[in-house]
Amino acid sequence: MIELYELRQFTAFADAGTLSGAAEILHLSQPALSRNMKKLENELGVILFERKKNKLELNETGEYALKLAKELLEGADSFAAKAKDFDRRNRTIALGVCAPALVWLLAPLITNTFPHMTLQTEIDDGQRLLTDLENNVYQLTATHTQPDAAQYFYKECGKESLMFALPKSHRYARRKSLSFAEMNGENMLLMSDIGFWNFVCTEKMPDSRFLVQDDRFSFNELVQASSLPSFTSDLAEKYTEVPHNRINIPISDDEATVSYYLVCKSEKKKSFSVLFAALEESLSP
User: How do strand 210-213 and strand 140-143 relate by DSSP bridges?
Assistant: First the structure.
């Protein structure tokens, strides 16, 4: 039986070019390495080397065997990593969401339903979510549009209404509601990774300039200290701390209110039936 250590020594010899060089790298004596190479030839039943005075070289068969040995060792070296990755994927639920609030809504529900699983979340703008679900990048996705293909199973998982968070001194702070058009041109604070809500900045308020923050703590500190407006939502009011110096004004545009849908592939409906039942129960009055 050929052992992996023999193949490793064989490739070490090929890389070093000499028995003495390979023996030094492998921390073996040169005679021991020479015996192992002879043993490898006997086990294969072929001659791998041309033996010359004070020199050992690979022959044509040896060169071919070297290629096979490297391929085999590469597979062996990746064996443990692949096994761990497979185990991790079988113990991980990957959830792709189109907006940050969906993590607040769904993470507790999923972790309570599958306490033995690890939840991994990622925010996308929504354009690739179903494609990535189909390609098994995610096991679940949450979108702001209903899937129209038969290969998906879904249920509504909540609603969100966007609001302007205005300093109390702002000229619109006493308004009952505001439109995107009325606030267009205002400089505003903005968190990055807001998913599909990016359309507000590019389409609804193209004349505004946004001071974007990547860090939630820094963003909250700026909201507390700045006179610039920012965005919030009814879900943010429920799940995060509301700044005391802000007044939240509902946005009147229809696009400011969306329904969300939790989606899995139809073939996975049975696997996630408990989760969808828990979701339905959580939304019951």
Answer: unpaired
